[in-house]
Amino acid sequence: MPRIIIAGPSEASRTQLNRLLTASGFGVFRLCGSEGELRRTLTECEDGIVLVCAMNPDDIAADFGDSFQFLMIGRPESISACESTQVFKLAYPCAGSTVIGAIEMLSQLHYMRLPHRRGHDKTLVEDAKRLLMRRYQIDEPEAHRRMQQYAMRHNMKMTDYAAELLNGSDS
Description:
Helix content: 55-70%
Radius of gyration: 18 Å
Strand order of the largest sheet: 2-1-3-4-5
CATH superfamily of the largest domain: Response regulator
Distance between the termini: 29 Å
Mean pLDDT: 90
Low-confidence stretches: none
Order of helices and strands: EHEHEHEHEHHHH
Number of domains: 2
CATH topology of the largest domain: Rossmann fold
CATH architecture of the largest domain: 3-Layer(aba) Sandwich
Number of strands: 5
Largest sheet: 5 strands, parallel
Strand content: 15-25%
CATH class of the largest domain: Alpha Beta
């Protein structure tokens, strides 16, 4: 399941969307109240879905659109001010089921964009994640994020890093 980030200046809107998504079985990674906080979060998590309310995501979508799916919820005048073709838009007010349907669609699009490992490569990555989870007492998304960041920083494939972790491990 992709990481979901909710961004917008209104704490009440962020909280309401968080409750809606959580009640529908989605996990929300982080709530961001400013563009700066959102940019830091997107840099940290590297891929996922961004749900933006009362904030124009044009610049952020231009910078992060290759890795993230964007959904903007706003008043019709705000929606028309958003020019990015990388942003899906819902006019406010909208039903909770409409928001959930849009998040489900974006989750599918996100899944289709990800590389899929098979067989031995998948086993290597899953075993390495379990090793990191035991070693550092972290959950699976955090283990995945750490492996992904290390591999990117060292210009290597995650499967190669996973093999290194498993070969060098003492457990």
